[in-house]
Predict the 3D structure of the following.
Amino acid sequence: METLRVSSKSITYGEFASLFAGPVRVSLTQDSLRNLKRSHAHFRTQLDAGETIYGVNTGFGNLSHITIDSQDQKQLQINLVRSHASGTGKPLEPGIVRAVLLLKLLTYAKGYSGVRPAVAEKIVQFLNKDILPVIPEKGSVGASGDLAPLGHMALALIGEGYVFFKGKKCSTGTALKKARVKPLDLHPKEGLSLINGTQVSTALAIKALLDGECLLKSADIAGALSVENSFSSRRVFKNDIHEIKAHPGQKAAAKNVYRMLQGSEIVQSHSNCGKVQDPYSFRCIPHIHGACRDSYTHAAEMINHEINSVSDNPLILKDGTIVSSGHFHAEHVAQALDFLAISFSELGAVSERRTHFFMKGVEGKFHPFVTSTPGVESGYMIAHVTASALASENKTLAHPASVDSLTTSGGQEDLVSMAPWAGHKLLSIQKNLSTILAIELIVAGAANTLASSALQAGRGTGPVLTLLGAYCAYRTGDRPLASEINSVAQCIQSGLLLKTVSQAIHLE
């Protein structure tokens, strides 16, 4: 197992992929440890000198005017963690929790938090032993840090609450005893530092970006199969057409569809049909898919910036100055997630429109609802209804979370980002999208079976049809479709569809 070296150097969201695949090993570089020691030394100097430091010798939020005596400062941190572990809902999946822990380490490695190296080393222990705090998915508004979910993370580090260990949920105390790990003893500022930050919001964004890479290309694959089997034009995807627009995402999507259809006898079979224009959902695939790709690129840049940022508060600067700031505010993350939600919702919307086209039938090629015996059979009528339901759901979920805010903490936190909700609904949109695309693929494959199975498909679409044939009983007429839809959706989510096509052609 490769060891992830945690340092102050910049990394990208793609380097988190291994955390979603299973347990990992991490280590702190000497540079990171030096940064931790420096910031902690500065912090202790200021505290011992009697400086007023928010959340260390003061209360929190709207209670920041209350002075905390030195004998109560450690208890303050414990109380903080316990009180903030107030989340609700299903636990975050293991990969997201690992990402949260690693993101917290990355913040500490930069040396602006003032915590002891022991805090970072405890997180390293948890990751290396794959002791994963049970973090409820709901309860954060994405400002003053992801307080509630990070409260549950911190609670596990001090030996309380619950964790997943060796695949099972158990009390943290039980897991630590089995793993021979001691709980963390919190010192001044350390509880506050653990619960401050955008790590949960950012981890959700990383998950969405990693899944999104596959979905963007899968949308092009589905679109190409629909273009081919709806007898639409391939030439509108030629490179020289799209070179006169400057959007890189548009060019990439056009190249993908054009390459997918290379060598297609189905495309050649209607080259002189006389049809001038196809519907937008086919003709404008590069423009619609391309816009989504470019939004994705912008969002990825914003998240990469956040990954490499310090989101703690207060901050201990390199000269020893301690300052309060708003680095825990996840507005950048929230807006990036909202961009992505709109984009992936739109991919589902245009996919559903292409499926709708097939429901009308193509004269001389296949009947409405892609049936072999219309009337007696309903074909893919209700599969399309399912796609419509999910596309509509996605449109509702795509409403930006970042434009909403509720004042919390007695008015101190008066405008929050709602980044975690932006992340959760984006993941729901993406899951729905995989099903919408699966239905489009199945329906386009059915059209091929009825109208074009004797003709050679494109270099990229041929492997897709072979894959669909392994899951779809096309020649048996009406049948329950739920299992086929779920199976093809899983092919998309697992990357099998993309891998199958990528073995035949290069996709941008």
Residues 80 and 191 are 7 Å apart (CA to CA). Residues 419-451 form the longest helix (33 residues).
